[in-house]
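note to self: dont lose this again. the chain is below, predicted strucutre after it. 259 aa total, dont forget to put it in the shared folder this time
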Amino acid sequence: MSVRATARITAALDGRGVTSLPVLRGDGPLALRRTRATTGSGTRGTVVGAMSAPLGGDRLAIETRVGDRARLTVDCAAATVALPGLGGEPATYGIELSAGERAELRWLPEQLVSAHGSVLHMTTRVQLAATARLVLREEQILGRHGEGTGTLVSHLTVHLTVHRAGRPLIDQQLAYGPGAPGGWGGAAVLGGHRAVGQLLVVEPAFDEKRPDARLLGETAVLTPLAGPAVLVTAVAPDARLLRGVLDQALDELLGAQEE
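---
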């Protein structure tokens, strides 16, 4: 039997200027916990899987809103594994994120593993105020150890409101596995690698000076976008090496802002 579940997180400043979580409500397999923050006045919420999901036919969603000047990090306790269902239906996973003026959102989930036989359509939509900051990481692992990948379609859209007249900062779709356009595993795309990820950093200061486009090692690239943002795209043989590349890129980008 398929599951329909929506989890909601709202972060806002309280009367002391500290970020609180007036809404932290999990649903079905998407349990939420407040966990110890690692930065100043910010707070952190962690997604804790309460059951195996998404299975074929499941409809899951997470809605996260960060109010003006609030600071929130959202992470996960473990990787998410997309599994096949009994009826062969695709599962969907929708993520809706928004951040207000001078807000900061760090969306740092663990890896999404596309198990053999699964079909998952994942959509991430982000709305940012002109002065909002965003760090968004996505990592996909194509198949568990010793098996082929399932079908994974991932769509990411980020809009900057007002400052960019509501036009997209980035709008892209990636597809892998059976049924995806041919060539996704070839030399021009994954080159035989099983782990693929991206890191998007939106920083208002990039309006004045953005990092230059460059290679990061042999299998990653940093690309400035047409707006105050950069995108790091990487492939790797496994999840550990992929995370290392993205973590190093994030440290460099954040370190450059602190100098």
